[in-house]
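Contributing new records

If you add data, match the layout below exactly. Sequence lines come first and carry their own label; structure lines follow with theirs. Keep one chain per record. Anything else will be rejected by the validation script.
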Amino acid sequence: MKVWNPETQQYEYIPEEEVPMAWETPKTGDDQEIGRWLMMAACALAGMGLAGFPAFRRRREEE
């Protein structure tokens, strides 16, 4: 694989076996758990559903 090196202003070649794969995520130092974000999203979705339920129920009773 050919990549540009801005320090030397030249292209450098990296062997294919040294190129990281898509499933190997880089270490960013972010230690937050994805479960917490999924739980907050689920609570938000449930809250929107509960907020819209009375209007749905009222419209259904009018029919």
